[in-house]
């Protein structure tokens, strides 16, 4: 694979980012990468945005695989590190999260 093919492949891998909820007007990038002063409130604001995002899983996979700092796919760096230390894979986490959200939605309907 030559350099042009590698760049094209990487661009295809990241095409989902244009659909991310965090790219919308009015969303503060600092929520996803907070300084220590407002970290809890900003991280929660980021998670709220992520909860509505159509590409949340793609984002989480990138943050998980690349060891990115900040909140990716609704999960903070510290949370991802704890999950990794407990040998939970990104796929296992997504499955557990989706089941929890389905259970909560079912409880809300009851």
How are the elements arranged and paired?
Elements: H1 3-13, H2 39-51, H3 56-66, H4 77-85, H5 90-109
Give a summary of the structure in a few sentences:
The protein has 110 residues and is mostly helical. The protein has helices spanning 3-13, 39-51, 56-66, 77-85, 90-109. 58% of the residues lie in helices and 0% in strands.
Explain what the structure shows:
The chain has 110 residues and is mainly α. The protein has one domain. It has 5 helices and no strands. The protein is globular, with a radius of gyration of 16 Å. The mean pLDDT is 90.
Count structural domains: 1
Give the strand tally. Answer: 0
**Share of residues in helices:** 55-70%
Shape descriptor: globular
Strand content: under 5%
For the residues shown, what is the average pLDDT? Answer: 90
Count of separate DSSP helical elements? 5
Helix and strand string, N-terminal first?
Answer: HHHHH
Question: Low-confidence runs (pLDDT<50, min 5 residues)?
Answer: none
Radius of gyration: 16 Å
Keywords:
globular, 5 helices, single chain
């Amino acid at each position: 694979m030559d350099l042009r093919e590698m760049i094209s492949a990487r661009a295809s891998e990241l095409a989902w980012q244009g659909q991310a909820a965090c790219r919308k007007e009015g969303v503060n990038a600092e929520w996803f990468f907070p300084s220590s002063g407002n970290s809890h409130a900003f991280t929660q604001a980021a998670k709220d945005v992520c909860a509505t995002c159509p590409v949340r899983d793609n984002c989480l996979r990138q943050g998980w695989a690349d060891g990115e700092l900040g909140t990716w796919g609704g999960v903070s760096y510290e949370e991802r590190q704890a999950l990794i230390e407990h040998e939970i894979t990104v796929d296992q986490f997504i499955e557990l999260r989706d089941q929890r959200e389905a259970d909560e939605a079912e409880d809300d309907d009851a």
